[in-house]
Design goal:
Elements: E1 5-9, H1 14-30, E2 33-41, H2 44-47, H3 52-75, E3 81-87, H4 89-99, E4 104-108, H5 114-120, H6 123-130, E5 134-138
Parallel strand pairs: 1-2, 1-4, 2-3, 4-5
């Protein structure tokens, strides 16, 4: 299988940094286009704190995180595309992957507790269950 278009999702965590490094390795192997995506979470959970100042903070964090991720990819020898979206994280990733005809989505796993995962579901699980392409979950 050849992966021409790879989408890696970042959130600033150590798991997403590892996902970026692994996606760079895969991109080099297959001479793939790599896109790094950050989604500003605008779901009900974040709406509790919603307001213009909070939204500004979220957007600033997104910008800082995507620039750091871009530098990480460049240090691995890859010139990535970068994109920031807003909305439900898993839905935005899935929509973008379908629209861009992504061949592989790479995401970091997160250590959500069992109760929280049961109640909310993890982003990586939702992507794996609803994506049309292959998904690599990095631990």
């Amino acid at each position: 299988m050849v992966f021409c278009k790879i989408l890696v999702c970042c959130d600033g965590s150590k798991h997403s940094d590892k996902a970026i490094k692994i996606s760079c390795d895969v991109a080099k192997k297959y001479d793939s286009d790599l896109t790094i995506m950050y989604v500003v979470d605008k779901t009900v959970r974040s709406d509790v704190f919603a307001g213009s100042e909070y939204t500004k903070i979220l957007r600033k964090y997104a910008q800082d995180t995507i620039l750091r991720a871009q530098r990480l990819a460049k240090s691995q020898g890859i010139e990535p595309n970068v994109i920031i979206k807003e909305g439900n994280v898993s839905e935005q990733i899935i929509q973008y992957s379908k629209k861009s005809r992504t061949d592989l989505i790479v995401v970091g796993s997160k250590g959500l507790g069992a109760v929280l995962r049961f109640m909310l579901g993890s982003v990586s699980t939702k992507i794996a269950n609803h994506s049309l392409c292959s998904v690599l979950i990095v631990k």
